Amino acid sequence: DGGITQSPKYLFRKEGQNVTLSCEQNLNHDAMYWYRQDPGQGLRLIYYSQIVNDFQKGDIAEGYSVSREKKESFPLTVTSAQKNPTAFYLCASSEQGLPQHFGDGTRLSIL
Amino acid sequence: GENVEQHPSTLSVQEGDSAVIKCTYSDSASNYFPWYKQELGKRPQLIIDIRSNVGEKKDQRIAVTLNKTAKHFSLHITETQPEDSAVYFCAATELGGADGLTFGKGTHLIIQP
Fold first, then answer.
1. How far apart are CA A73 and CA B19, in angstroms?
2. Which of B34, B43, B96 is opposite residue A97, by nearest beta carbon?
3. Whole-angstrom Cα distance, residue B23 to residue B46?
4. Which of these, A33, A85, B74, B83, is most buried using a 10 Å CB contact count?
């Protein structure tokens, strides 16, 4: 879906390192979401934000942090506290009452 | 919170036959049920959705049915084609609620030539 850009496409993390995944949208959507996808686990919600300067923990927020300083941006930081960070990370956005649309994802691996 | 169960985890059908994927949900407040198709290494793409005020919705070869009383909804694909091969996810949420979508674990649909 055009309008949601995730970067980088591939990311490698060293032990003890924090890494930040970028998500930008030009759809003027209020709500933005971060999901983690593991094989056989479907998509699990990490954090979501319904409005600028506000965000809520999802089902698996431990070891992650987010910020929402601008409407179009919702970066996700994978901290060193996340012991099993290898996964496919998907960002999504939506307007109230409308479907979520996803970015192309970032694949994070451990060196 | 919401819990979504999806079955089967893998479904293999002959090209031209129909495929049915079923999901159940737990939260009676959920009123929006989208289905996503994900090809290998790509983003999930919305293929059809249904709201709780209708029982069925069709879009060409794809249909979704909803039974609110039993809290289950199903995806039906008719006249399957090789390009239908993918992983399909169901999801549920309450529109306007505080949470995002809750997804099922996915069904790997394989179309046999």
1. 39
2. B96
3. 16
4. A33
pLDDT tens sequence for chain A (111 residues) = 459 999 999 999 888 899 999 999 999 999 999 999 997 778 999 999 999 999 999 989 999 999 999 999 999 999 988 889 999 999 999 887 677 889 999 999 988
Closest CA to B14 of B94, B104, B81, B90: B81
**H or E element in which residue A52 lies:** none
Collect all residues of chain A within an 8 Å Cβ-Cβ radius of residue B104. Answer: 42
- By CA distance, what is B94's nearest residue in A? A97
Nearest chain B CA: its distance from A81 CA (Å): 24
